[in-house]
């Protein structure tokens, strides 16, 4: 089985670099976008196997990107795991009920993140 191609969409560059390095060391192909607009364009063009998406970002935020992806035939099937600093059970519940493949709060544990990535889309 080949490792998944993952797109990280997050405006916190340090977080992106840290997760990128950790996932690459485990054999994943990783791409990054630093805002929802760039993330949406990359999701359409690159067709990643999975998206790691921050909720709070400028230019609409991760929630609107998720909604746009759900409504586009080219991106609707891409699993999305929300990775956010917002630790609110109601938000997590709403995200999962709306079709997210997972929800994790920052700071992330790389082992837990990999476990979630492997479960997503199976």
Topology:
Elements (H helix, E strand, L loop, with lengths): L4 E5 L3 H12 L4 E5 L2 H11 L3 E4 L7 H10 L9 E5 L4 H9 L4 E4 L4 H10 L3
Parallel strand pairs: 1-2, 1-3, 3-4, 4-5
Helix pairs in contact: 2-3
Walkthrough of the structure:
The chain is of the alpha/beta class and 122 residues long. It has one domain (5-119): Rossmann fold (3-Layer(aba) Sandwich). It has five helices and five strands. A five-stranded parallel β-sheet has the order 2-1-3-4-5, with helices on both faces. Helix 1 (13-24) links the parallel strand 1 (5-9) and strand 2 (29-33). Helix 2 (36-46) packs parallel to helix 3 (61-70).
Key terms for this structure?
122 residues; Rossmann fold; alpha/beta; five-stranded parallel β-sheet
* Helix-and-strand structural type: alpha/beta
Strand content: 15-25%
CATH topology, what is it called? Rossmann fold
Number of helices: 5
Top CATH class? Alpha Beta
Q: H/E order of the elements?
A: EHEHEHEHEH
> From the 3D coordinates, which CATH architecture would you assign?
3-Layer(aba) Sandwich
Please outline what is shown here:
This protein has 122 residues and is of the alpha/beta class.
């Amino acid at each position: 089985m080949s490792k998944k191609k993952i797109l990280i969409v997050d405006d916190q560059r340090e977080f992106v670099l840290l997760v990128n390095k950790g996932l690459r060391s485990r054999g994943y192909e990783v791409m990054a976008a630093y805002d929802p607009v760039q993330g949406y364009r990359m999701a359409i063009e690159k067709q990643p196997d999975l998206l790691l998406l921050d909720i709070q970002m400028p230019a609409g935020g991760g929630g609107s990107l998720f909604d746009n992806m759900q409504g586009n035939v080219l991106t609707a099937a891409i699993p999305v795991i929300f990775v956010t600093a917002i630790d609110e059970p109601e938000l997590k519940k709403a995200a999962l009920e709306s079709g997210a493949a997972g929800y994790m709060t920052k700071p992330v544990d790389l082992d837990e993140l990999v476990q979630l990535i492997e479960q997503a889309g199976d």
